[in-house]
Amino acid sequence: MDIVEISEKRYTAKRYDKNKSVSREDLEKLLTVLRNSPSSVNSQPWHFVVVNNATSQNKILPAILDFNHARITDSTYTIIFCIKTSLDNDYLTHILDTEIQDGRFTKPEIIQSMDKDRRYFIGLNSITNEKLHSWESCQLYLALGQFMFAAASIGIDSTPIEGFDAQKMDELLGLKEKGLKSIVVASIGYHADNDSNAKRPKSRLPKEEIFTFV
Ligand SMILES: Cc1cc2nc3c(=O)[nH]c(=O)nc-3n(C[C@H](O)[C@H](O)[C@H](O)COP(=O)(O)O)c2cc1C
């Protein structure tokens, strides 16, 4: 499918068909897209909780605002996008070790400078915990965008969800104890015939208003 076509086809599903499920194989593909998502200085400041709605929706439903319940109950999977509450020394060493293992560095001298630059940049964005968390969240939203676009490209419908109680979600999934914090949620599945949003035309501000060419 052409990229413009995918962008037009993707829309926020409001109602899902419970009888149609995303295959495990397609789920794996979408998780790979999440894993390959770019992040500033390759910080990968995330963790994704994958909820199988057929078996485990009750674990998260109390944290989902009422108007969003149907986006969870009838979809196949719900992904909870989480940031790490801290990017500590052990974690940054772990990232560096992984990059070494993955063969990212051709010359040993690059290793130290990469590590130094990453720590410097993360330091700039960690003046306060709030600043760090907001910077990490930006990386998560990039992953969310890629995820939804990729899903649409293989005919899977999705719903981005901010309408949930993050504190409650963290409690229900024991995220705080794991050094995580939920930021945004997305469900995937196949839309129901009565999903009124499926037929609603897109509404976007005109090109002239949102692009400037210099
Ligand atoms: C970060 C984010 C959070 C959103 N949260 C919700 C939500 O909680 N519930 C919902 O039904 N739609 C939610 N939406 C969907 C938006 O309303 C929708 O993307 C927008 O109206 C544009 O429509 P489209 O996605 O169909 O093109 C969210 C979208 C984004 C990007």
Main pleated-sheet profile: 4 strands, antiparallel
- Weakly predicted, low-confidence segments: none
The CATH level-2 architecture is identified as 3-Layer(aba) Sandwich
Task: Going across the biggest sheet, name each strand in turn.
Answer: 1-2-4-3
CATH superfamily: NADH Oxidase
Strand content: 5-15%
Shape: globular
Q: Tell how many strands the DSSP assignment holds.
A: 4
What's the alpha carbon Rg, rounded to whole Å?
Answer: 19 Å
Mean pLDDT across every amino acid position: 97
Q: Report the structural category.
A: alpha+beta
CATH topology: NADH Oxidase
| Helix and strand element order | HHEHHEHHHEHEH
CATH top level class name: Alpha Beta
- State the separation between the terminal residues, measured CA to CA: 31 Å
Our count of domains comes out at: 1
Could you say which small molecules are bound to this protein?
flavin mononucleotide
Please count the helical segments.
9
